[in-house]
Amino acid sequence: MSLITRATTELAASGIEDARREARLLLEIAFGMTTGWQLGHGDSVIAEPDLFLSLVARRTRGEPVAYLAGKQGFWTLDLAVSADTLIPRADTETLIETLLAHRPQREAVRSVLDLGTGTGCLLLAALSEYPHATGIGVDRIPAATALAAANARTNGLAERCSFIVSRWDDAISGRFDVVLSNPPYIPGCDIPDLMRDVIDYEPLSALDGGADGLDDYRVLMPALTRLLAPGGLAVFEIGIGQDKTVPELGRSAGLRVADIRSDLGGHPRAVVFTL
Q1: Phi-psi map region of 124: left, alpha, beta (phi>0 left; psi -120 to 50 alpha)
Q2: Which parts of the sequence belong to the Methyltransferase small domain (predicted)?
Q3: Could you give the residue ranges of the DSSP H alpha helices within the chain?
């Protein structure tokens, strides 16, 4: 039995969908063998398969592929990931698409604040698109800000940003052209229903938004009135079914809802606020 067949069988038995594709991906992570190379050469040349088999075993227990690889692509960036941060999702790229739609002139943005920065994905993606901008990323977890700073260095953006350990905006002064945030927004009662890859490995503090999923929006909406510069905008991620409640929280805080945009799945995902 080939290694790929063995791994496919083990992954499928543990409930992993598209097990053969994942087996080939894990072989690439372990040895750098692309799928094309594997199809042309097979896996018979692998003399010491222990690393590959250990990755397969971890994946059968539900550990996300991004953690096994130690990295995840986001926008045009390659970002290191760890169990201290959420894995960046394609849905979150909707925030960057929305920002670019509202600020197409690359000279128009000079300052960016990212609240709950995690890997730094939103801040670093924004800085990659706005070459004259500088930014600050905030996270309450020191290991997250350290990882984000490392990602900034890896992507050549370290000189244009800094990272602060703080609870939301507590340590922030000044006003910003752009404020970005993907706060926790999953209602606490829905946490047990998440995929095991998520609840067993990703930080629940970055997911749990309280009883109705809105706890952190209630803190952040009033804060935007002092954080946004004149003419500035905030782009916030929201969860499914929150396209009415989150905008209403913003309006109640004195903000204007300028736009609501959907992700590729058709779900409202990004809300734009202005003063």
Answers
A1: alpha
A2: 95-189
A3: 3-13, 19-31, 35-41, 50-60, 65-69, 93-102, 121-129, 142-154, 196-199, 215-227, 245-252
Known binding residues for S-adenosyl-L-methionine: 116-120, 139, 168, 182
Report the candidate in 70, 68, 92, 94 with the shortest Cα–Cα distance to residue 81: 70
Mean pLDDT in residue range 112-116: 98
Rounded CA Rg of the chain: 20
pLDDT at 49: 80
pLDDT tens digits, 155-209: 999 999 999 999 999 999 999 999 999 999 999 999 999 998 999 999 999 999 9
Residue 195, by phi and psi: left (phi above 0), alpha (psi -120 to 50) or beta? beta
- pLDDT for 104 beyond 60: yes
pLDDT of residue 266: 97
130-164 b/e (C-beta count within 10 Å ≥ 16 → b): beebbbbbbbebeebbebbbbbbeebebeebbbbb
**C-alpha to C-alpha distances, 97 to 155, 190, 197, 233, nearest whole angstrom:** 20, 28, 27, 14
What residues are designated binding site? Answer: 116-120, 139, 168, 182-185
pLDDT mean over 84-97: 97
Residue the block writes with tokens 């994946």: 59
Binding-site positions for substrate: 182-185
> Using CA atoms, how far apart are residues 71 and 141, in angstroms rounded to an integer?
19
What is the chain's mean pLDDT, rounded?
93
Mean pLDDT of 101-128: 97
CA distances from 130 to 53, 75, 119, 137, 176 (A): 43, 14, 19, 16, 14
